[in-house]
Amino acid sequence: MRSKELLILSVILCGMAYGSQNVELEDSVIYSTTGFAESVRDEASTPVIITKREIEEKRYKTAIEALKDVPSVNVQYQMGMPVIDMRGQGMKAKDNVQVLIDGVPVNSLETSMVASVINTISVDSIERIEVIPGGGAVLYGSGTSGGVVNIITKKGTGSRASAGYSYGDVLGGKADVSAGYTFADRLDLDLAYTKNNIKGYRDYSRDESDYFLGSLRYRISEDQRISLKYTKYKNEMQYPGSLTDVQLREDRRQSSLYPGEEYLILSDKDEIMLDYQNKLSDKLELNLLGFSQKIEITMKDNYKIPGESFDMEAHFDTKKNGLKAKLKYTYTEKGALIFGVDYIDDKLDRTMEQLIKGVTTVGPMVVANDVFTDTEIYLKKKTWSAFLLNTIRVNDFELIQGVRYEKARYHIDRSSMSHVHVEGRMGPMIIPMADTTSLYPIVAKRDEDNFALELAANYLYSETGKLYLKYERGFSSPAPALLTDRDATPSYGGSGNYFLNDLKSETFNTVELGFKDYFGPTTLTAAVFYTLTNDEIRSSGMSRTSRIVNYNLAKTERFGFEISAEQRVNRFTFRETYHFVNAKIKDGIDGYSGLDVSGKRIALVPQHKFSVGANVRILPNLSLDADVVYAGNYYLNDGNTGGKKNKRLLVNSRINWEPKTGLVVYAGVNNLFDEKYSNSVDYDPAGGYSYDPAYGRNWYVGFKYQF
Questions:
Q1: What are φ and ψ of residue 575, in 5° steps?
Q2: What is the per-residue pLDDT across 301-337, written as a single tens digit (0 to 9) for each?
Q3: Stretch 352-372: mean pLDDT
Q4: What is the SS3 assignment for 205-219?
Q5: For residue 96, is pLDDT > 60?
Q6: End-to-end Cα, the chain, rounded Å
Q7: Strand, coil or helix: what is 391?
Q8: CA-to-CA distance for 269 and 122, rounded, in angstroms?
Q9: What's the Cα-to-Cα distance from 198 to each of 75, 84, 280, 408, 670, rounded to whole Å?
Q10: Which of 154, 151, 155, 153 is closest to 49 using CA atoms?
Q11: Of the residues 171, 343, 477, 685, which has the fewest C-beta atoms closer than 10 A?
């Protein structure tokens, strides 16, 4: 494998060095760095923009597929649900990468058991995806150490319609339709529907979803418009449990560790968004964004093994309402000040019921042990924020200064009721042995105050090149559920009680140096960064003793660099990327085990990721596209026990044919050489490794017709 890795890396370096023909420069625009349309060239960052053209050419099935091709993005999986990681966040990815759809955050208030529902938008409704590695604390607040991903939906004018269908041996069928019309040159109506029916790679796996989008946009005047958008997403996913080493070697497509155990995850999301924009004058712009989300997730799990059965059902009901207001004042031709205020009210109701039935034989007596647990949690987190972001041009320098203040107010109401029933049976005789009930409630309130700071200088040293230096101070305030710990249950020598902990917000300081320029046909972008985080939050999760510990690691650090290049020469487009990150715990004690983990590598972070890709237009209506993507091994836990696992080298290819105007027929093969790797790998010193195998080689075909 090492020889293949070196060969691909050599190709990347050769491609980056290539150059003999000038490229046509584009005045690219980005919306996510300030909330207003800005030139990418003027930004002190190296954002990645996945355009509608790229999405269509590569035939991505989901937004996650598109993000996997971004050099700074590593996609993790938790119980089959994707988690976006950027710049080595590892287990903190759910908390430290902000994901937005049209500027509305989708990160879940619950981070211990479920991931944010990211694939709630159909890829066919996406206009562009803006990825900002590292940064965004002033504009977006808590949880941006890794970066920001903003998915922007399509907005059309005139009469428009499209329909498409694709089918794959593993991916199953996907159908999509959309239509839009403009009334009286002022009112735009758009409707879109997508149906996914993914068969899945493993036995008893499936993923079925329905997505609907409806939007109205009204142009009140040339400088004033208002839009209303409603989206509905329903998903039913059956996810097989993990495999052992032996099972993986026997048949990586089999179901799970326990026969008949498949997790069932039901998701239902409703969201309504109202956006108002007004150019009040030549110098003043106003943007108001209001939104309301409701997400319901149900998880079910059950299995039977000799002597024991387990049944679990959990419900997560989230309601999020928010308002974001921004005012941009252009006080000189080369200076602008943005003032913003945000308010978000996030609520979560979580209920979980578990029943464990155990049977053992003691001499002539059969002992039945039933344990029923009913957990109810009501969590609220309200945040109020205000920020200022100033940009001014001095000769060839863009100077940026920003500050943000954020207050978070928590309300926690949780209880857990356990009922234990033990009885012995000798023939027809039943002998009661134990019957106990206990209740462990806690009600608490807490406030957190945090601030963010940004200072940057962007040097426009030529008509095409920029060099920037940026410092950012940001934070992540804890999720409400992490503010309480739990003692072990009485059967393990504890009280079973919940109690408030002294968990702190984590703070980070990042320094970043980057540049972008054009050299002949080559666009070259690079950045190097260093992040020092204080009080990084960790959670032990639920152990077999029911003990839960949430704690802070004193210091963690992440150092890395990203480099990407693209060449366009005649009918050819070449792409090369390389991403390196070294993430480690500088100083810290594992709060659960008490072990010193200083100097250990942060789990779930591959040090190396690189890719090469090419697109060739063989004929005006026929193109071929291929990518080779490598991601390295990573440690499975902060103690680094179990070593490194799960590197992969994937080759994906596709072909697009346009037999007539408006019609595209396409086909592709993913994982061409059938690389064996996993979506996730876990390690337990007592139980060994467990794996969630990823897709092997698979194919798909489809068409898209635009009327």
A1: -135, 140
A2: 877 777 778 788 999 999 999 999 999 999 998 899 9
A3: 78
A4: CEEEEEEEEEEEEEE
A5: yes
A6: 47
A7: strand
A8: 13
A9: 19, 21, 48, 40, 15
A10: 151
A11: 685
Identify the helix (H) or strand (E) that includes residue 246: helix 245-250
> Which segments of 347-397 does DSSP mark as H helices, in order?
none
131 bridge partner residues: 48, 149
Query: In this structure, what token pair is assigned to residue 52?
Result: 């509608």
Q: How far apart are CA 638 and CA 604, in angstroms?
A: 9
What pLDDT does residue 469 have? 97
Alpha helix (H) ranges present in 1-113? 2-17, 52-58, 63-68, 93-96
The amino acid that residue 624 corresponds to is: L
Q: How far is CA 633 from CA 410, 606, 630, 647, 655, in A?
A: 38, 5, 10, 4, 31
Contacts 24+ apart (CB under 8 A), 681-685: 681/636, 681/645, 681/646, 682/242, 682/636, 683/636, 683/637, 683/641, 683/642, 683/645, 685/641, 685/642
CA separation for the pair 19, 670 (Å, rounded): 30
Structure tokens at 376: 């109810």
Instruction: Among 165-174, 283-292, 415-424, name the one with the lowest average pLDDT.
Output: 415-424
Collapsed DSSP state (helix, strand, coil) of residue 566: strand
Write out pLDDT tens, residues 673-701. 999 999 999 998 878 899 999 999 999 99
**364 close to 422: Cβ distance less than 8 angstroms:** no
Res. 245 pLDDT band, cuts 50 70 90: very high
- Supply 230's token pair: 């409603």
Strand residue runs (E) in 154-283: 160-168, 172-183, 187-198, 206-221, 224-240, 262-279
Sign of CA dihedral 222, 224, 228, 229: positive
Q: Which two tokens stand for residue 164?
A: 């498409």
Give the pLDDT confidence score for residue 15 in this predicted structure.
Answer: 44
Give the separation between CA 480 and CA 488, rounded to whole angstroms: 21
Burial of 367 (0-12, 13-18, 19+ CB in 10 A): middle
* Contact (CB, 8 A) for 408 and 346: no
Structure tokens that stand for 656 in this block: 């697009």
Cβ contact 696:171 at 8 Å: no
Residues 440-479: b if buried by 16+ CB within 10 A, e if exposed: bebeeeeebebbbebebebbbeeeeebbbebebbbbbbbb
Retrieve residue 642's tokens.
């179990």
Place of tokens 């529907």: 193
pLDDT, position 365: 75
Q: What is the pTM of this model?
A: 0.91
How far is Cα 565 from Cα 560, in angstroms, rounded to an integer?
Answer: 17
Beta-carbon contacts of 250 under 8 Å, excluding residues fewer than 6 positions away, are none
Kindly tell me if the per-residue pLDDT of 645 is higher than 80.
Answer: yes
Enumerate the β-bridge partners of residue 315.
298, 351
Query: Which tokens is 64 given?
Result: 């996650």
